[in-house]
Every structure is written in C-alpha cells, then in structure tokens.
Write a structure and sequence with these properties.
Layout (H helix, E strand, L loop, with lengths): L1 H18 L3 H14 L4 H13 L3 H14 L4 H13 L3 H14 L4 H13 L3 H14 L4 H14 L2 H14 L4 H13 L3 H13 L5 H12 L9 H11 L3 H8 L4 H9 L7 E6 L5 H6 L3 E8 L2 H8 L6 E4 L2 H7 L4 E6 L10 H10 E13 L5 E3 L5 E3 L1 H10 L2 E13 L7 E11 L6
Parallel strand pairs: 1-2, 1-4, 2-3, 4-5, 5-7
Antiparallel strand pairs: 5-9, 6-7, 8-9
Length: 439
C-alpha cells in the first residue's frame, strides 16, 4: 500500500513537471513510479511522451509498445505510438497506429486530426476532409482543424468554402493569428492583394508561430522589409510537395530550359574527369548532363523527396541532404566545378554563398549558375516569391570574390503565366576562380 501511494505521488509529480515542460525530470519521476508499480499503462503513456520530447525516439517507441502490451485496446497508447513513428519518419506505420487509435475510440479527436495531416501530405484530400470534419464534429471550436479545412478547400479550388471556413475560424478566435495568416494567403491566391496584405499584417501583429513565412509572403507583395533568402521551411514544403510531378510539369508544361542552356555554356570549359558538386540538384536534371564530364558527382538538395527521385537515376556518387550554404560551409572536400541551376531564385543575398563556393573550389575551378533577371540594382523579391538579381550585382560579386567572368548571357529560363509576358528570363553565368580562397 505504501509503494502504491509512493508510485502515485511520483506519477503526479511527473504530470506537474510535464506541464512545466521539464521533460527530463518528469521522465525520471515516471521511471521511479514504474519501479514501484511496474506495467501501469498511464505511467508508460506519459513516459513515452517525455521520451519523444527528449528525442529518445527508439526508447519512446518501445515504451508505447510496453503500454500496449498491458492494454492493447488503449486509444492513447496507439495515438502516442503514431506520434513517435511520425517523428521517426515512419509515416505509413504512423497512420496505421492513428487508425488503430480511432478503431479503439472513434471519439478521439487527436487521432482524427493527425490522420488528416497524413492524408493532406499524400494529397488524399477527400479522406483529409472527412478527418477534419470529424474533428469538428467532436470539437466544434477547433480552430486548427478549420484552418486545415480551409487550406484543403483552397488547394481544391473551392474558394468560397475556403473563405467561409476561415471566416468562421476568425469569428471563434479573433485573437488567434493562424486564421488571419490563412486568410491572407487565400486572398493572395485570389490576387486580392490589398486584402491579403491587410490580413497578413493583422496576423503578424498577433505573433504567429510561423512568423518567417508570413513576413516573406508580405514582403513579396509590398516590396518592403525584404528578407535575404526564402525561409527554409517554405522551400522544403514547396519541393517535397512538387517532387512527384516536378519533371513532367516543369519540362513538359513550362518548357524548362535552365539545365540545358547552362550546360551548353559550361561544357567547353569543363574538363573531363572533373569532381563536380551540383547544388540544388533536385531530381537530377542537371546531373544527367554533368555525368559525362564527371569523375565524381555530388548532389545537394534541401528536399528529401527530390533527393529520393535523384537517387533513383543512379547519376550521383553522393547525395547530401541540406541547405546550400550549410553544406558548403561544413564540408572540407574541394571540387573542380560547382553548379547551381535555378537555385538562387530562393537566395537573395549571394555574398555568403560566393564566399563558400570560393573556398570549396580548387585552383581555376568553375562556378556556373543561373539567376532570374531583375532590371534594377542588387536583388529583388518578386511577387512570384522568387528572387531576381541584376547584372551589375552579379558583376560586383564576381569581382569581390575573385572570379573571372567567362559567360554572362541573358536568355529564357521557362514559361510562367504569372510573369507579365509569360516568360521567365534570366542570366546564365560561368565564372572561374582566379585567386586563393577568401579569408
């Protein structure tokens, strides 16, 4: 009886520490409680949450299974297991666990919510709508579910339903920034720029968690407070979502020219058996052209799904997941050539990138890239939410970072309806390193 009371006291202390987000101390409380009363499912459930928060995912998964061994019918244990599996990138196993949680208790809203998120990630929108509508049936005031539904309706082109849903969220939660941000992005999609700016500004006043993306969208419309680069989360989301249809859409529908034209300018200068790094390699469109000149070919991309597509082609000797500047600054290997085809439209200020490229290139190394053109000074974040760079800016960078200009040509990159004449024009540039690395 004394051990039972001590175990309960330790359990309650753990709950209190979870509420204070002191997960390490809470986990210790739950472990001590389990020593006194082993196998208690509620204690195991809370321990698994702490372990997940602490990044101890394997142990968290084992703890969830230990709880299920005690009570296989527990919706909470199945839900917690799904959360852990999701963080571990076991998405198919995670959705199976969420569905088992629902089968044990159909009135468990969190399992419906996370199932909906899974279906959105797979573009299974009908199933996603069913999930979020179920969440709202169980929890009518769930603003997050309303925001997700509005986004799905917008993606499907049901703009009236999208706006009606987000207006309902705003009526229920006028001090929540998320509906204002969603409404602003919906207005932007409908080309209602004034309303979009107004809603985004209101959302930013309320301090949203994803402030960076909202500020980026606002800057693209107003031309004010221009950030130096696209938020990494935006790039990852864009290209993870785009990976499965990237080549078909870009090449077949938009007449994508950048890899072919850039390689034409580079090929006469690029020696055979070169060590080459392909920055922002995507699905390998540029790599397929470079392979004939490569001794070794390294691909870098921020989107795991794009890297998966590139890997299927067996073009690259090494594929690296990461952001361009981060990879270049943290590696020690050097190359005969660095290529960046249609990458710098997501980086405004290229000064750091030029520094890192200079460091990674060998003597007389080549640096080939293309940028969307901008008839002004420096760089600009365009309404398309991509950066344009001026020809003078490129010349200044080459001079500052010790590169000789071999080629600087203005030409078509691809087609796009959002551009005034339907064409995206750019500069194709081939530089050669002329001095030792920048200090």
């Amino acid at each position: 009886m004394i051990e039972e009371e001590q175990a309960k006291a330790l359990f309650l202390a753990g709950i209190e520490r979870i509420q204070k987000e002191d997960y390490a101390s809470a986990a210790q409380n739950f472990r001590e409680s389990l020593k006194l009363v082993p196998g208690r499912a509620s204690t195991l459930d809370n321990l698994s949450v702490c372990l997940m928060k602490l990044g101890k995912l394997v142990e968290a998964e084992e703890t969830c299974r230990a709880s299920l061994a005690v009570d296989e019918a527990s919706p909470t244990a199945w839900f917690n297991l799904g959360l852990v599996q999701q963080v571990m990138d076991k998405s198919e196993e995670a959705i199976a666990s969420f569905q088992k949680s629902i089968s044990r208790d159909p009135n468990f809203p969190d399992s419906w919510h996370y199932s909906g998120l899974f279906f959105v990630s797979r573009k299974r929108y009908r199933e996603a709508v069913e999930c979020f509508e179920k969440v709202l049936a169980l929890d009518p005031g769930n603003v997050e579910a309303m925001c997700m539904l509005s986004s799905i309706f917008s993606e499907l082109g049901f703009y009236f339903s999208a706006m009606a849903t987000i207006e309902k969220a705003l009526a229920l939660a006028p001090h929540n920034p998320s509906p204002y941000i969603k409404k602003g992005l919906l207005h932007k999609k409908l080309n209602q720029i004034g309303d979009a700016i107004s809603s985004l500004k209101k959302g930013l006043e309320l301090n949203p968690s994803d402030r960076e993306s909202a500020e980026y969208s606002l800057a693209a419309m107003t031309g004010e407070a221009i950030p130096t680069r696209t938020p990494l989360r935006h790039v990852v989301s864009l290209f993870d979502d785009y990976a499965d249809r990237f080549e078909k859409h870009l090449v077949d529908k938009l007449g994508y020219q950048s890899p072919r034209i850039l390689f034409q300018h580079l090929e006469p200068l690029l020696k055979s058996n070169s060590d080459i790094i392909d920055l922002g390699c995507g699905t390998g469109l540029m790599g397929a052209l470079l392979k004939s000149k490569a001794k070794t070919l390294v691909g870098v991309d921020l989107s795991r799904k794009m890297l998966d597509k590139a890997g299927e082609k067996n073009i690259y000797d090494l594929l690296i997941w990461g952001e361009v500047d981060g990879v270049l600054s943290n590696r020690e290997d050097t190359y005969d050539a660095a290529i960046a085809s249609d990458v710098f439209c997501y980086i405004g200020d290229l000064s750091k990138t030029f520094t890192y490229i200079n460091t990674r290139l060998r003597k007389d190394g080549l640096f080939a890239f293309c940028v969307e053109s901008f008839d002004g000074d420096g760089f600009k974040l365009k309404p398309t939410m991509r950066y344009g760079h001026s020809v003078n800016y490129i010349r200044e960078l080459a001079n500052t970072y010790n590169f000789k200009i071999h080629k600087l040509d203005h030409d078509l990159m691809r087609l796009e309806a959002k551009e005034p004449d339907g064409k995206v024009m750019g500069y194709y540039v081939v530089l050669q390193k002329t001095q030792a690395p920048i200090a």
